Amino acid sequence: MESIKDKVAIIGMGCTKFGERWNMSYSDMIIEAAYEAYEDAQIDPKDIQAAWVGTLQSSSSGVSIAAPLKLKNIPVTRVENMCATGTEALRNALFAVAAKAYDLVLVVGFEKLKDLGYAVLGGGYEHPVFNTGYSTPGTYALAATRFFDKYNATKKTLAKIAVKNHHNGSLHPKAHFQKEISIQQAMDAPIIGWPLGLFDCCPRTDGAAAAIICRIEDAQKFKKNDYIKVKGIGVAAGTGMGKSNTDYDYTHFDENLSAAKQAYEQADIKVPLKDLDLAMVHDCFTITELIIYGDLGFCPRERVKEYVDDGIFTMQGELPVNTDGGLKAFGHPQGASGLRMIYEVYNQLLGRAGSRQLESPKLGLTHNLGGAPGMEIVACVGIFGL
Amino acid sequence: MLGIISYGAYVPFYRLGWDEIEKVWGKKLPSGEKAIANYDEDSITMGVEAAVNSLDQFERKNIDSLYFATTTAPYKEKQSSSLIAEALDLRDDIFTSDCTNSLRAGTIAFKTAIDSIKAGSARRALVISSDCRLPAPKSNFERFFGDGAAAFIVGYDNPAVTVEGTYSVSSDFMDIWRADQDRFPKSWEQRFVITEGYLKCIKKGISGIMQKYRLLPEDFTKVVVYGPDPASHAKAVKSTGFDLKKQVQHPLFNQIGNTGSAFSPMMLVAALEDARAGDKILFAGYGNGCDAFILYVNENIENLKNKRGIKYHLPLKKPCASYDKYLNWRNLLSKETAASASLATFLPWLWRDRKQILSLYGGRCRHCNTIFFPIQRVCDKCLSKDEYELIRLSDRKGKIFTFNVDHLAPSLESPVVITIVDLEGGGRLRLEMTDCFPESVKISMGVELTFRKMHDAMGINHYFWKSRPLCEER
Question: What does the pLDDT average to over A214-235?
Fold first, then answer.
């Protein structure tokens, strides 16, 4: 088995403003993101040989992007892997490029949630008894209850994560929320699923993001040195047995451990806290980010509260996490989220992150987690570098 | 020797105080309360609960027929007893029958079961009465209508109570009715209904059975008889020659209420809880006639003293916070519902999974013994394929591994407590919790399982099991 490391380059990226895009259709957002990526990659869209698109629930098939972008009769594939959908689209595309099936490929992820009203995420063909009667925040609250019981974290630990991500989001003009919050505000917010309150939950957001990829040896044809490299990518689909299996402890995700192991091996990462310069993780809920710190090996799980209290994961800390605000402040259109994370890593590595710019970062991580504690879960970890 | 082998009853956890009714309608009422079904209960779920309490250690597969009596079946067309049989995990080669449309349905079911056993068509029958009648708000019925259920196993195997005589009268009298389109029961002027209807009919039935078997009121230890309200009940007892103070089973109007077709069966359970060998009981149900029974209690009654009956349930209670909440539970409040709230369902899926959903069957791997719910064809632990055996989990207790209090979950009642329950003997279930105090739920709390209505989608009631704190944890 060969590593994907240093085979594929991302030479252009685009991302719409995330938020409540009442006057934009998903097609409008796809055009906005894709054309930003075309321009960035300095390519003619006619040269694109194939495309992959990720959307969880906003449309179906490759036609969803072929139609607005007028990709005429080339191979376009839609992929879906829950909240890991955006990164999964890139993962499938980069294998095709590495295999030399195509030279220049477009990847798009999008979601148009704000046309749906209050409808909850997911839905569709669900078991009429076993998969009804609960909310997604409630399901993550099951992990928070257990985590609080087992480790020394509290609601305040979660509040600190919300405050950090809101602060980071306030520095990004494309983030859904650009507003700082206080610890007190986060702790006093209305309860959604005890112990999680409003500021522990990510919003429902519209957005799209896009990437142009090619093999490393072709990258300079297009862009000289202005690109980043894929260093590793891992995906793990769980069996959904946590809710049925007494061995599961509700304070970690085995899918995370496996996806991280795959990606770390490919990218040759030994000590994530030291080796990585930034990480964009799936903070659908603050408790998820807290659990991820342990799962991805950023710190020992039993000392996670200490690490948060010490500001290790803030912009000034040893390993800044969610420098663009994360799902919490940037928003979470599922199909777009993975590519949005890569967009931030891309901009940071290329020194384009403006007021959020870290000091010469070289290696960044993206992480997605679809599903919910004890339920069907897909985790995805990507490593990108210069 | 044919008679009652076991009994059980169920009284819902919630009570609506008469003062809540008084607050809304302004009519001065004495102090009292009534038992009201939770938002996730109906006559089927309460019937299942009473039946589970009567079955306890009794071998379920020995039940040959099931009679379900109610005036409040969830469906006008579609049997309730067949669903109850599935929830109780009875055999499928049994006779199931719904007895409906009369307040007397409880005693009709009891008599039919006795007669069918006498006739040799069954050896053991389970007779369940359950009612959840909805009084019109502000009506005279509102104060006295309560919800509850009772169940009896009847047959020849060493009964604790023998049926020594039966007598019935039929009387086509319009005292209370609910036409096809009516939501609430209606009635005529009470003076007419009570004096011409109830009192005369009860007298005919009770005097009739005593004449038939040449017995006098003083030959009985207790009389257990239906009554629409305390005053009429007392009048009926006196008019038949019984001593109101010494011989009457208390009808608990101010603690549970008139539970319709389950009312006299529940009173019989209460009477049997206090009964001793040698007691003789006159038991009667009313509604478009009267069924009366002569029951003799023997020494086997001592074996039934630990059954969950009326005594067990009376102190287990929580006040319904307000009349508004009660109205909401009964879908009598107009309110905003999310545009996307209508639930979809898939009948073939429900049918395929019926043993798991209704009987709560999980699978136990024959190789590694691990129990999984829902059933896994490929074992998550040892990966053996199709090597599982079915195992019923509904009668197990468990402990909360983790939980949350969900304010966003779609439900008539909010918040919803969701529990991850690790069962004694293995197996983990994700279950909604019911009949609890959300603020006192904690990790490691002991729970038992209870059959409840989850939601309805496309006009189909979806039932499943929920967790409930053990009585000592409530």
Answer: 92
* CA–CA distance, B238 with A26 (Å, rounded to integer): 79
C-alpha B320, offset from chain centre: 19
The ipTM assigned to this model is 0.89
DSSP calls for A37-105: HHHHHT--GGG--EEEEE-SSS--TTHHHHHHHT--SS-EEEE-BTBTHHHHHHHHHHHHHHTTS-SSE
What's the CATH fold of domain B346-357+397-474?
OB fold (Dihydrolipoamide Acetyltransferase, E2P) (2.40.50)
Residue A122 has pLDDT above 50, yes or no: no
Residues of A classed as catalytic: 83, 332
Report how far residue A220's alpha carbon sits from residue A207's, in angstroms, rounded to the nearest whole number.
30
pTM: 0.93
Residue B126: closest CA among B168, B146, B96, B89? B96
For the A8-118+205-228 domain, the top CATH level (class) is alpha beta
Nearest CA in chain A to B423: A246
What residues in B contact A239, CB-CB < 8 Å?
380
- Per domain, the residue ranges of chain A are 8-118+205-228, 136-203+231-385
> Given an 8 Å threshold on Cβ–Cβ distance, is A250 in contact with B402?
yes
- Count each helix (H run) and each strand (E run) in chain A, helices first: 13, 11
Check CB contact under 8 Å for B407 and A191.
Answer: yes
> Which residue in chain A has the smallest CA separation from B458?
A128
Amino acid present at A117: G
User: Can you tell me the distance from the alpha carbon of A60 to that of A49, in angstroms, rounded to the nearest whole number?
Assistant: 20
Residue B403 sits at the chain A interface (C-beta within 8 Å): yes
**Does residue B76 belong to the interface with chain A, where contact is any CB pair within 8 Å?**
no
**B 267-326 residues with CB below 8 A of A?**
none
DSSP B10: E
Q: What is the pLDDT of residues B321-330, one digit of tens each?
A: 999 999 999 9
Q: Contact, A376 vs A130, CB < 8 A?
A: no
Q: A264 exposed, middle or buried (CB, 10 Å; 0-12, 13-18, 19+)?
A: buried
| Residues belonging to chain B | 474
Q: Do B406 and A130 touch (CB under 8 A)?
A: no
The answer to whether domain B3-329 has CATH 1.10.10.60 is no
Is domain A136-203+231-385 annotated with CATH 1.10.8.60? no
Same-fold call for A8-118+205-228 versus A136-203+231-385: yes
Cβ of B344 under 8 Å from any chain A Cβ?
yes
Residues B137-159 pLDDT 10s: 999 999 999 999 999 999 999 99
What's the gap in Å between the CA of A197 and the closest CA on chain B? 10
